[in-house]
Amino acid sequence: MPQLISNQFKLDLAKLEQNALIELFEVDLRGLKDNDGMNGELYRFYAGTNEKSQSIVWQGKTFEPFAVKADGFEMSGNGPSNRPTLTLGNINGFITALCNRFDQCLGGIVRRRLVYMHYLANGNKKADPTQEALSYFVIEQLSSLNRDIAQFTLALPSETDNALIGARMITSTCSWLYRSVECGYTGGAVADEKDQPTTDPQKDKCSGLLTGCKLRNNTHNYGGFVSVDKLG
Predict the structure, then answer these.
(1) Which helix (H) or strand (E) holds 13?
(2) Phi–psi pair at 7, nearest 5 degrees
């Protein structure tokens, strides 16, 4: 599966004694439109199982506790990976409403972030917002929906079969407007559209590539799929 993962995170995964690892999810429906032409929203959550059900802040973004179960995210060494599933609690019919509004949410983007608890910035001395394993998926099918739960089947951008996916969603270049809310970068001038260094605000433009995000330490907001160009 397409993953962005640091060398330090790989070392953590290889340790015999593992610290607590949590899954943070983003379901991004901003690329979908309803019948009125209105775009969807971005939802951030995690499987809130502790008694206090506290929010988790990661990279400056808040993830709320929610009834969620994720299955089948293992990597396959033989051909395409298994289709993972994301099961969400249909609290007060909220997921039903989203599915009715956005054609079963097909084509929505799901980002899965694996984070060790000791990297969270809640007083931890080892807090480091760059240490995560980030993977991207696309909602391919609404496989089950009832009054209690909704289950979605996910796929890699390169493995989607019949999902209604807009071209914007599966490009290797970032689709966010530079310095927009989605982009999230608010720092000084760094480079031009060809990733050449510059301190001139007039020439400061993003290349739309992952390299542009790396120059700005902003890869966690990258809006493209780095694996698409490797197809064929």
Answers:
(1) helix 7-14
(2) -65, -40
Helix (H, G, I), strand (E, B) or coil at 232: coil
For the entire predicted model, the pTM comes to 0.64
Q: In which element (H, E) is residue 8 found?
A: helix 7-14
- Band (pLDDT 50/70/90 cuts) for residue 229 is very low
Give residues with Cβ within 8 angstroms of 149, minimum separation 6: 67, 87, 88, 89, 90
Return d(Cα 58, Cα 3) in angstroms, integer: 18
The neighbouring-strand residues paired with 143 are: none
Which pLDDT band, with edges at 50, 70 and 90, does 230 fall under?
Answer: very low
The CA distance from 220 to 176, in Å, is 13
Distance CA 160, CA 77 (A): 18
Alpha-carbon gap, residue 13 to 30, rounded angstroms: 32
Helix (H) or strand (E) holding 214: helix 210-215
